[in-house]
Amino acid sequence: xxxxxxxxxxxxxxxxxxxxxxxxxxxxxxxxxxxxxxxxxxxxxxxxxxxxxxxxxxxxxxxxxxxxxxxxxxxxxxxxxxxxxxxxxxxxxxxxxxxxxxxxxxxxxxxxxxxxxxxxxxxxxxxxxxxxxxxxxxxxxxxxxxxxxxxxxxxxxxxxxxxxxxxxxxxxxxxxxxxxxxxxxxxxxxxxxxxxxxxxxxxxxxxxxxxxxxxx
Length: 216
Known about the structure:
Structural class: alpha+beta
Number of helices: 6
Oligomer: single chain
Helix content: 25-40%
Low-confidence stretches: 2-8, 26-38, 161-168
């Protein structure tokens, strides 16, 4: 009986050891190496001049740089906002704290799709709760929805819409304080006309009284 127990215990321990070794040898998911998620990699991107000039806030929201066949692609987190009447797609680009830094209006390329969990999704099927990755190839002025996409699959940044930087919490609070102060102040529209009218009435009344005294 003791021999049987010893054999069973040994088998269990051996099985646990083999399982631990197998787990240790398996790759840990699709996590990017640390060097691909550092801000320094985003700062080293050779940005397009139009991107620097028109979207300085957006550049600061770069999440990481992905290398595809020797080409660098800057990745951005973007939340779907809406599709306008012209078919342009508006996204809110998020920073490292998931705060909106800028809304960009994109003109999608023919056949371009969004990707949610690696599933191709038409832009018109996106909901306001959906977030996707957007990629900017180094030196280019446009957005792809997958790194390594061909140049004809870059969505143009609409020139008919100015970039809409999102107000910071401090700016919103300051504007609310100014409105509150304006409401608390008395309006400066009052004039002296009522006083002139009262003085005229009193003068008229005094004249009537003097006339009556002369009569009596």
